[in-house]
Automatic annotation (TrEMBL):
Pfam family for this entry, one: Glycos_transf_1
InterPro entries tied to this protein: Glyco_trans_1, Glyco_trans_4-like_N, Thiol_BshA
Stated name of the protein: N-acetyl-alpha-D-glucosaminyl L-malate synthase BshA
Origin species: Pyrinomonas methylaliphatogenes
PANTHER family, per database record: GLYCOSYLTRANSFERASE, N-ACETYL-ALPHA-D-GLUCOSAMINYL L-MALATE SYNTHASE
Record-annotated Glycosyl transferase family domain positions: 189-348
Gene3D superfamilies xrefs: Glycogen Phosphorylase B
Gene Ontology biological process terms, A to Z: bacillithiol biosynthetic process
């Protein structure tokens, strides 16, 4: 198949999922054309089967805001016709679905171009529910030829918010060959020079991720006498606040902010625990990637997280904001190596049994085939 994929290239899990999906499809012999404003971050290699088409923005004095949605639709039309695409698969409804539906209508007299929309979370829970975006998001859902959601939770949220139920759950996935605990010479001793246990947080540091709660957890873990260190991976609007809180609580020497990193798997490979105290998380891709690397997850019981992290088996869940319980859970695992390792092993097994790329990618391919076969 020849598939056009559009993602947000720099920010957030939907871009990662779309990019990893493209790579997995290419490994299985399909050709994938990424159409977006810049090269998606996880797309480190382009080749015959993984191509990239940059959306060019035209600036003109009359345009107070450049019309990205139209530029994207224009590029989708061009690529669909030049590369003979079978379908467009967009990740995140706003504005990608709007562009894809417009592109489909433009080429309709000459060719069929089904549009598949994958919902990731805030496109429904935040953006979609904002009254001003509600009608257009509903239109995108209704007009797409196929809609998928990445968790049962997100499907329920979509039905509730939009009374739209014509969607299929295809969960996020992980490649167990790439995401496995592997030796990373020097990294652990660099991050924890005195052999301290390591807690890791990975996110885009948006308010919804509550990264400052990680600092609160670290302070309580230290207060309970466990000399742990915290590695904060990623960047975003809440980073300065989290750094400030670390200084206020005098734990800044026990944590390090390493910014955006190209190889998350290295940090997960040296981690003892992942902290994911999010307010909202329709899936929790960071949790899944940690589980694949045998890292137990301390997370909030929110959205789709309980589907991914089985409480007591692959991690420990708490109510949003309950940093007391999260720190107690962290201490209990950090002080019991055998339990922590066993939980890590079960986490990997659970991740691969349910979310391995080899299980999930064929479901996308089958979904494409069903959409293509429909009238
Ligand atoms: O986080 C967002 O606001 C949007 C979205 C994104 O593009 O990063 O994240 C969502 O998609 C991820 C990948 O499917 C999920 O793992 C995240 O749980 C989900 N984020 C939220 O629901 C807040």
């Amino acid at each position: 198949m020849k598939v056009g994929i559009t993602v947000y290239p720099t920010y957030g899990g939907s871009g990662i999922v779309g990019s990893e999906l493209g790579k997995e499809l290419a490994r299985r012999g399909h050709t994938v054309h990424f159409i977006s404003s810049s090269l998606p971050t996880r797309l480190t290699e382009l080749n015959e089967r993984i191509r990239f088409h940059e959306v060019e923005m035209m600036s003109y004095p009359l345009f107070e805001h450049q019309p990205y949605t139209l530029a994207l639709a224009t590029k989708m039309v061009e690529v669909a016709e030049a590369e003979d695409l079978d379908l467009l698969h967009v990740h995140y409804a706003i504005p990608h679905s709007v562009s894809a539906i417009l592109a489909r209508e433009v080429v309709r007299p000459r060719r069929r171009l089904p549009v598949i929309t994958t919902l990731h979370g805030t496109d429904i829970t935040l953006v979609g529910a904002d009254r001003s975006y509600l009608p257009i998001t509903r239109y995108c859902l209704e007009q797409s030829d196929g809609v998928t959601a990445i968790s049962e939770y997100l499907k329920r949220a979509t039905v509730e918010t939009f009374q739209f139920d014509r969607l299929t759950v295809i969960p996020n996935f992980v490649n167990g060959e790439e995401y496995r605990r592997r030796p990373v010479p020097g990294l652990r001793s660099h991050l924890a020079p005195e052999g301290e246990p390591l807690m890791v947080h990975v996110s885009n540091f948006r308010p919804v991720k509550r990264p400052t709660d990680c600092i609160e957890i670290l302070a309580r873990v230290l207060r309970r006498g466990v000399k742990a260190r915290l590695v904060m991976v990623g960047d975003g609007p809440e980073r300065a606040q989290a750094e400030h809180r670390a200084r206020c609580l005098h734990v800044d020497r026990s944590c390090v902010f390493v910014g955006k990193q190209p190889r998350i798997v290295d940090y997960l490979s040296v981690a003892d625990l992942l902290l994911l105290p999010s307010e909202q998380e329709s899936f929790g891709l960071a949790a899944l990637e940690a589980m694949a690397c045998e890292v137990p997850v301390i997370a909030s019981r929110t959205g789709g997280v309980p589907e991914v992290v089985v409480d007591g088996e692959s991690g420990l869940l708490s109510e949003v904001g309950d940093v007391e319980k999260m720190s107690a859970d962290a201490v209990s695992l950090l002080c019991d190596e055998e339990r922590r390792r066993e939980m890590g092993r079960r986490a990997r097994a659970s991740a691969l049994e349910r979310y391995s790329a080899d299980l999930v990618i064929p479901r996308y391919v089958q979904f494409y085939e069903e959409v293509l076969a429909a009238e």
